[in-house]
Design a protein that fits this description.
8 helices
């Protein structure tokens, strides 16, 4: 795949759209999302889902679920991983670079500004208006993450095994405080085993 190509192919909604335009939209979209959205990776995923699935119709809900699955199983910051994944799906290598820069640049600049002026803003952090604003923001973020989880629930949990794995992960994380890596590994093993058993049974049924 060329770094800069004339057209974006592979995504029906982008057929005939110049690649440079897609890259600029990815860059600006992620600059806007990461500047305005507070709350980490899942809140940014929810905002990206709103932007690219429901507003622009460039991706489907299944694409987002696939993206979350892939980015959760590789090292790195969830927000940057998801931006690179979406950028690659929509614009190839140049799209991934544009989305990654857009997701990282605002945070970098804001953190540098806070670090430079931390002595001046320490007193303002305890101001009632600032504390109230953060309470409102955090509450809103929890609702956005919950809405994303609900959409994933409706889309992916369609059989008893899926419900069992989801319940196992929820209890393991919230009650027993097991490490997420252990839960993900166990879920993968359970899914592979169930699929192998299912294919074996279908094969035996075909022989009969």
């Amino acid at each position: 795949m060329k770094f800069f190509d004339d057209k974006c192919a592979g995504v029906p909604a982008l057929e005939g759209v110049p690649r440079w335009r897609v890259d600029l939209i990815l860059l600006w979209s992620y600059v806007r999302i990461t500047t305005l959205v507070i709350g980490g990776g899942y809140a940014i995923i929810a905002a990206a889902q709103e932007e690219f699935v429901r507003r622009r119709h460039w991706l489907s809900e299944d694409d987002v679920i696939e993206m979350i699955t892939v980015t959760q199983t590789v090292p790195g910051i969830l927000a940057c991983n998801s931006a690179a994944y979406i950028g690659w799906r929509l614009g190839g290598l140049s799209g991934a670079v544009a989305a990654l820069i857009g997701s990282a640049l605002p945070s970098l600049l804001i953190i540098m500004a806070i670090a430079a002026a931390i002595s001046q803003v320490q007193g303002a952090i305890n101001h009632p208006a600032v504390r109230g604003a953060f309470i409102g923001l955090v509450s809103c973020i929890v609702g956005m993450v919950a809405a994303t989880a609900l959409r994933m629930w409706k889309k992916t949990l369609r059989e008893p095994l899926s419900y069992g794995i989801a319940a196992f992960a929820f209890i393991g994380l919230s009650v027993f405080k097991w490490h997420p890596t252990l839960l993900i590994g166990a879920a993968i093993v359970a899914g592979v085993a169930a699929e192998c058993v299912s294919r074996f049974r279908r094969g035996r049924g075909g022989e009969k």
